[in-house]
Amino acid sequence: MHAAMKAILGLAALAIAWSGSAAGQAADGYSGPITDAHAHLRLGADDGLLESHPIGTAALREIDASAGVTRSALIVIARRGNMDATRRQNDAVIAAARASGGHFYPVASVHPLDGAPALAELDRLAKLGVREIKFHPNTQNFDVADPALDPVMDKAGDLGLVCLFDSYKPWDTNEIGKFLMLSIKHPKTRFVLAHMGFSQFRETIAFAQIKKLNMGGNVWFDTSAVVSAFADSPMAPELLWTMRQIGMDHFLFGSDWPVDTPATAAAALRRLGLTPAEQRGVFHDNVEKLLGLPSEAG
Predict the structure, then answer these.
(1) Residue 74: phi, psi to the nearest 5?
(2) What is the DSSP secondary structure assignment for residue 281, as one 8-state letter?
(3) How far is CA 239 from the centre of its chain?
(4) Does residue 209 contact residue 176 with C-beta atoms inside 8 Å?
(5) Which three-class secondary structure state does DSSP give residue 220?
(6) Rounded CA separation 261/58 (Å)
(7) CB contact set of 127 (below 8 Å; sequence gap of 6+)
(8) Preceding omega of 33 cis (within 30 degrees of 0)
(9) Domains in the chain, number
C-alpha cells in the first residue's frame, strides 16, 4: 500500500507540474490582434460555399469579435466568360470592405483565362486600392501549368497585386510542383498558397530547398484547413517542422470561413506548438506586412 500511495502521489505531482507548465505557456502566448487572411463573402443565394453560409458580413463580424479577429479578408471568386458579373462582384466586395470601417479588406477576383478583359480588370482593381486577387483552380476549372495564366500573373506582379491561390486539387498530385514552377517563372509576383497543399503539405518543403538558389521567396502560405486538420494528429510535429523550414515569416493565419470559424482555426494554430513570437507573425504581422495594410481602425 505504501508503494502504491507513493506512486499515486508521484503521478499527482506530475499532473500538477504539467498543468502549471501548460498554464504558463497560455499566459506567455500571443494575445494581440488577429488578421484572418482567408474568409469568404457570400453576396447572394448562388455563390455560397455552404447552404448555411450567411449572406453579407454581419455574421462574420460577430464571430470575428468573439475570436479576437480585428481584421479579416473578404474573398470572392470570379466565373469565366462574364466580365460584367465579375466587375459587379468585385465592386460589391470593395463596397462591403469600405463600409466596415477598416475591419474587412477586399480580395477581388478575375478568371485567369478571360484574357485581355481580365488584364483590364486588374488595372481597374489596382486603381481602386485592391491589394490581393483570388484564383481557385478547382472552382474556376483551370490548370496552374497552363501558359495562358502567364499574362495575368505578370500583370499582377507589375501592379503589385498579391495572387491568392487555393493550393489543393485532389485529382492532381502535381499541383505543388506546378506552383513551384509558377513562382519561378514569375519572380516579381507574390503568391499566397492557401491550405499549404493540405494533405500534400510535405511537398511544400521544396520551397525551402529552392530558397537556397534564391528562388521561391515570393511564395507565402496560409494556415486554413491544413492546421485544423493536422494540429491534433501524429503528423503535427512534421507540419510544424515543415513550416519552420520554409520560414514562419511566410505563413498567414486563415480560417476559410464558413468552413471553419476563426475561433476554431485560431485554437488549432495555438495547439500546434508555435512560440509566442511565431504566433504574432502568423496571426498578424506577416499578412499586414505582405499586403501593406493600414493600421486597424480603433
Answers:
(1) -125, 110
(2) I
(3) 16
(4) no
(5) strand
(6) 14
(7) none
(8) no
(9) 2
Q: Which has more pLDDT, 108 or 51?
A: 108
DSSP 8-class letter at 234: T
Consecutive H or E run containing 75? strand 69-75
Report the SS3 class of residue 260. coil
Residue type, 168: Y
Residues 25, 51 within the same domain? no
CATH code (residue 168): 3.20.20.140
With a CB cutoff of 8 Å and minimum separation 6, the contacts of 170 are: none
Residues 5 and 95 occupy one common structural domain: no
Output the nine-digit C-alpha cell for 140. 474556376
pLDDT above 90 covers what percent of the chain? 86
In this structure, the number of other CB atoms found within 10 A of the CB of residue 95 comes to 11
pLDDT at 244 over 80: yes
Average pLDDT, the chain: 90
Same domain (yes/no): 15, 59 = no
Say yes or no: 163 and 224 in one domain.
Answer: yes
Same domain, 11 and 105: no
Q: For 133-165, write each residue's pLDDT tens digit.
A: 999 999 999 999 999 999 999 999 999 999 999
pTM comes to 0.89
pLDDT in tens, 96-113: 999 999 999 999 999 999
* Pairing relationship of beta strands 34-36 and 162-166 according to DSSP bridges: unpaired
Do the domain assignments include residue 43?
yes
> Helix, strand, or coil here: 127?
helix
Residue 298 amino acid letter? G
- The two beta strands, 251-252 and 191-194, are unpaired
φ, ψ for residue 109 (rounded to 5)? -155, 150
pLDDT of 28 reads: 54
Is 298 a domain residue? no
State which residues form the domain around 234: 32-291
Judgement on whether residues 168 and 21 belong to the same structural domain of the protein: no
CA distance to 2, 23, 55, 262, 297, per residue, from 40 (Å): 61, 34, 10, 12, 21
